Amino acid sequence: MIRAFAAIALPEDIRARLEMLQHMLPLPRRIAPENFHITLVFLGDLAEDQLADVDAAFRGLRAPAFELRLTGVGLFGGNKPRNVWAGVAPQPRLDHLQRKVFNAASGAGVELGARRFTPHVTLARLNPVRVDLVRLEGAIVAESGFETDPFTVREFTLFSSRRSGNGMVYEPLESYPLEPVAD
User: What is the end-to-end Cα distance of the chain in Å, rounded?
Assistant: First the structure.
């Protein structure tokens, strides 16, 4: 079984900006910059033949390239936060791509839960018992104006995910180009 997900990998300059943002926040367990991404759909544990079906479905997917910008920072988990994230500015073409990726995976036989798509980049995972919430919330308010320059999304990627002694390791398995946008 291969644990897999489809995501948008981020360009080096955007990852560098996110890494600087991490250092502005009191984060005990930072996500490694090489692991920054925007998840389109989490596929779970797949057998190799099912992964091949997903790959074939993704190869047939057509969607236009688009501009994207990261903006804002926040917490998931309410009173017991578990994740710190950087937000994504609203972009209808991102939503369109996510729906197409979700439908393609579903059509390939992957059972997906009905979760609302909330595009973000995870910066850190938290242990709610050990986090100094007052300090963290203050730092997040101070960095709430975080924003990147726009960047062009030209492809999405199928990743495998496995645990290692140093956290998660994400390996790109295949990338799927988006259609160029005419000027």
Answer: 43
Residue 182 lies in a domain: no
Tell me whether residue 96 is one of the annotated catalytic residues: no
Q: Among residues 120, 126, 146, 159, which one is catalytic?
A: 120
Work out the number of other CB atoms within 10 angstroms of the CB of residue 91: 16
Q: How would you classify the pairing of strands 37-46 and 66-68? A: unpaired
pTM over 0.90: yes
Residue written as token pair 């910059």: 33
Q: Tell me which of 37, 51, 104, 105 is the catalytic residue.
A: 37
Give the integer Cα–Cα distance in Å for 180 and 30: 34
Q: Buried b vs exposed e over 94-121: b needs ≥16 C-beta within 10 Å?
A: beebbebbbebbeebebeeeeeeeebbb
Domain count, the chain: 1
Answer whether residue 147 is part of any domain. Answer: yes
Residue 177: both structure tokens together: 């180009």
Pick the residue with more confidence: 131 or 160? Answer: 160
How do strand 37-46 and strand 167-177 relate by DSSP bridges? unpaired
- CA 109-1-62 angle, 5° bins: 40
Q: What is the residue-averaged pLDDT of the chain?
A: 91
What CATH number is associated with residue 39? 3.90.1140.10
